[in-house]
Amino acid sequence: MNHLLDDAVASERLADGRHRVQLTADWHTANQTPNGGYILALLLHAVLQESKHPDALTIAITYFRPATAGPADIAVREVRAGRRVSTYDAVLVQDDKEIAHAVVSTHDWDAAGTFEHTPHAAPDVPAPADCADVSALVPEGMVPILDRYTYRAPAAPGWLAGQPSGITESLCWIRAADERPVDALLAGAMVDAFPPVTAEIGHLASATIQLTVHFRRRVEPGTVWALGHVTSRHVLSGYHDEDVELWDEQGRLLAQSRQLAILADG
């Protein structure tokens, strides 16, 4: 079975680390431009095809300008092939313009260390089956990226009910609409798939400038749901931060991200 995300990031591998991709409008945001997590997945997918190591460890991506639906190229360069960690950079180019640049580190989870220190547990929320399905609160087709996922939350966000809470934080379960199992590729897309929590202070439209994701474990096979804990701490001069933690149903941390974004309406 081909999953939606895999079809959307599929590439034709050319010579010298180059990949030809076809961007789709199916992952557009409310801004009518491709979602940043989708762009991240395109770049990460290309890098993993070139990488000495099998697993993604980190990705830091800067967005220069919005992409459009249509053909584009990705150029991947090996910066350093290390024993435990290798580093690559990748640039998405469309119509002779650089769209986004990523620096990616890869490794092998089977060769990772064993020491762990976890000062706090996953948020205590009901299981997805016991949460409200909030996907239906946004009409299908209004925001294409939201149709790619299913969302369930302990309670519907206040902004969706026309009563913004003023608290820029949310807890929400997320899964691919076609129930694609979670891996690093999907986790990287998921961290940018939640509506900005700045909606709770009256600002829904937001565009990512820089996004960094740390992958914290190899996801257990069969995992489809992830719990997103989303927080914006500061909004200054129209720019806001957004931190996301992704947890599985067993309370294991899958990924962490931080981004800086600009309010499109502020």
Automatic annotation (TrEMBL):
Q: Which domain of life is it from?
A: Bacteria
Q: Which residues form a coiled coil?
A: none
PANTHER family the record matches: CHROMOSOME 23, WHOLE GENOME SHOTGUN SEQUENCE, THIOESTERASE DOMAIN-CONTAINING PROTEIN
Q: What is this protein called?
A: TesB-like acyl-CoA thioesterase 3
In its UniProt entry, the species of origin is given as Nocardioides simplex (Arthrobacter simplex)
